Each structure stands twice: as structure tokens, then as C-alpha cells.
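Hi P.,

Sorry for the delay on this. The queue was packed all week, but I finally got your sequence through. Input first:
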Amino acid sequence: MTIDASGLVAIGPDQPTAKLDVRAQGALSIDVVFRLRNSANTDDIVTVNGNNVMAIHNGTAPTANLATAGQLYVEGGALKYRGSNGTVTVIANP
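Then the structure:
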């Protein structure tokens, strides 16, 4: 683990390029699970396991557009994409 002078944290072989930069070299063990949470007291937002399966948990639909990006989220079990112009596309139904 590396923490640079500006407070960026890296887990892995490289210097950090973001607030939290996690990288691995070689194959991951199948028992590795990566979880992203809002805080220690909340449920997982995104889970990725060693079998390369990603779970995006239900969340609140975004209400604002991002000028230079789209937003991928799950609402009621449906995978949705909100484009930069506000158009919502259902990619997969629950």
C-alpha cells in the first residue's frame, strides 16, 4: 500500500492516480471479493468477485445529467443507462 504526499492511496504495484487506486498483477484468486460502499454502515453498492462477476445493487435513479458522461445504475432490479441528455434506456429488465 502506498500513500503519497497529497493523500492519494494505492493498493498494488503502482503509484496512486486517484483517491483510491487498486490494481493487481497476475491472476486473482477466486476467493477475492471487491466491495464498494458509501460507508462502513451501509450495504454494498458494487461487488466484484474473483469469477469476474459484477453485481450493481439497487440505488436511487440519478436526477441530474452529466455533461460529458452517462450513468449506469440499477433501479428495482432493472439495469438502466441515463445519457448526458437525460434519456433513460432500460438495458435489462428485472
